[in-house]
Structure formats: C-alpha cells, structure tokens
Design a protein that fits this description.
With 300 residues, the protein is α/β, with parallel strands linked by helices. 35% of the residues lie in helices and 20% in strands. The protein has one domain: Rossmann fold, CATH 3.40.50. Pfam families: Abhydrolase_6 (PF12697).
Length: 300
C-alpha cells in the first residue's frame, strides 16, 4: 500500500493511499495508527465512494486501523469499468480478494454497505483464510426467486429491461458547474434527503472529478452505476451457505435490499434498525459503529 506525500494535510485524521492491482490502482483512505496492521476494510455502496463513510469510521480510528477504498468504477480508483456484457459482481469481489492478498497481517474484519456488503460476502465465502468476521449493512441479497431468475439468461434480459433503479442511474445528471453546485442540488432531495450534511459533503468531495473547463463530473458514470443494478448473476445465497465466518447483518426497516430475515444460516445474526432506510450508515451511525466495534473487539 502506497502513501500520499503529505499524509495529514489540512488537519485530516486520515491518509490517502493506493493499492496496485492488475489493470489499475485502488484509491483508499486509511484511518488509525499507521504502525498498526490493518484491522478492517470498508466497502461502499453502488454509486458512492470511500470518503462518504468518513464520519462513520473516524471515531474507530482512535483504536483501530481501518481502510476504506473506492471500488472499481468509483471515486479515484482506476481499474477498468466496462459495463457492456457485465453479468455479476464477481469482478468487485475479486478486487476485494486481491486487496486482501496485498495486505500484511492477520485476517480482517470486512464491513460493507449495500453492494459493498455483498462483495464482502462473496469474497469471504471464497477466501475465509483472509477474513475474520463481517459486518454487512443492508447488503443486496435478493429474494431466492429473483436471484435464481437473474442467473437465467432469458429472465435476466427481462429484468434488465424493467429496472427502475438502472433507468434512474442512466438519467442522473452527470455534471455540475462545481462541487458546491452539486452539493446544493443534492441537499435534502431524493436519495439524499435523510443524509446529514457531513457525509453528503464528503460524498460530493470524492464523487466528482474536475473537467478541463472547470466544471465537475460524476466519478461513477451513470452507465457503470446502472450496470451494478443489472449485474445480478452472482450467487449470494450460495455464498451464505458456504460462509465459514461470523457475520452481523444490519437491515433497514424501510426499503431494505436484504432478503435475509429470520431464515438464516448458523453464525449470521440479523437485526433490523428501527426508523432506517437503505442509507442506515448515515441515519444510525452510532448503532452501526457499535456493531463494527464489537466485531473488531471479538476474539479470533
């Protein structure tokens, strides 16, 4: 993992780092003591970025070393993000495994929100030797029937034609005169209506890239965001059956993307957080942080 030249510029409590993978670099934020092995990796949701979770992770950095990274097609990461022909989240799970293999130290806690939670689940099922336990924040675990249909080519094509989320991503405004203009446009509206100011500002800070003309554009294109909604050919239920590590799942009370409720494999605890939506890391940060801290403190 490579460090930036001025790690604590502007009084920050985190550093920017990169991990070289085949085909490009993963951009990351590291919290906590630099002389400590990494304790946990944090994976963001579709369309988001690592910095959006800064206020959630920062207090944990007083005790633990936590790395949050921009997944393929997001933030400042440079891995290829070609949406055409994409059918599953195997690529983002493989990226996570590659990152795990490049980090020294003992097995890690994986924390993931939405798509990030599912990527953590898929990776942990494949490489339990590099994973200690998991905290999954409203992971995308579709109903068994939908998940099966998504792996059948004819039904998968039908799903792709009728995905409101994907269509919304493709219609999303891609550029603004400035980050300030983007922040003003998002504040209190649509998917961001329940977000506090700090994580929203952090999301905008790393969620846009500067253009030569001085305007800014989304780092995660609408096409890539849509491809994540459509590429559901991975087997989350199979990963759950194979999972050999303890996991805590925190579900949203309203609009949850997690179809796992009372019927669950051994070793997986599921809790629904009252009053929350899919954006529960920003709506109930203290409860989420407590779950992460408990996983970090658990004995191997």
């Amino acid at each position: 993992m490579q460090h930036e030249a001025s790690p604590l510029a502007e009084g920050r409590t985190w550093t920017r780092e990169t991990v070289d993978l085949p085909g490009g670099r993963v951009a990351a934020l590291a919290f906590g003591p630099a002389d400590r092995p990494v304790d946990a990796l944090m994976l963001h949701a579709n369309g988001f970025n690592a910095r959006a979770y800064r206020t959630l992770i920062e207090p944990l950095g007083r005790e633990y070393r936590i790395v949050a990274y921009d997944q393929r097609g997001h933030g400042a990461s440079t891995l290829p993000a070609e949406p055409r022909g994409r059918r599953s989240w195997t690529d983002v799970a493989s990226d996570l495994i590659a990152v795990l293999d490049r980090l020294d130290g003992p097995p890690l806690t994986l924390v993931g929100h939405s798509m990030g939670g599912t990527a953590a689940l898929l990776a942990a099922a494949r490489r339990p030797d590099r994973v200690r336990n998991l905290v999954l924040l409203d992971p995308v675990i579709l109903s068994r029937a939908y998940a099966l249909g998504a792996r059948i080519p004819l039904l998968a094509r039908l799903y792709r034609r009728h995905s409101p989320l994907a269509q919304g991503a493709l219609r999303r405004r891609a550029s603004f005169p400035s980050r300030e203009a983007a922040l003003a446009a998002y504040r209190g509206r649509g998917a961001f209506r329940t977000w506090p100011e700090a994580p929203l500002a952090d999301y905008v800070a790393d969620g846009f890239r500067a253009r030569p003309d001085g305007t800014v554009e989304l780092a995660c294109t609408g096409e890539w965001e849509a491809s994540n909604y459509l590429a559901q050919g991975h087997d989350s239920w199979g990963a759950l059956r194979r999972l050999a590590r303890p996991a805590v799942i925190l579900r949203a009370e309203r609009g949850s993307t997690c179809g796992l409720t009372e019927s669950r494999p051994p070793g997986i605890a599921v809790e629904t957080l009252p009053g929350t939506t899919h954006f529960l890391p920003f709506e109930a940060p203290e409860r989420v942080r407590a779950a992460i801290r408990a996983a970090l403190a658990a004995r191997p």
